[in-house]
Amino acid sequence: MSTTIWVLIAILALIVGFAGGFFAARKYMENYLKKNPPIDENMLKAMMLQMGQKPSEKKLHQMMNAMKAQNKKKK
Length: 75
Description:
Keywords: Cell membrane, Membrane, Transmembrane, Transmembrane helix. The protein is mainly α. It has three helices and no strands.
């Protein structure tokens, strides 16, 4: 086989690999976010109510900022 055919096959394999990887990663992230949704203020408010605390806006913002800071430390 000539080298141009090999080059075309290699380029085609790269394109198929990138497309397959993109869709596989997208599907994985969708499933991950369904199982582990990010916590928002409404969820935090519900958790505080379940623990018997009356959540104020100030306390909600403090807890959200603390969680964001903790996530930044992990990265």
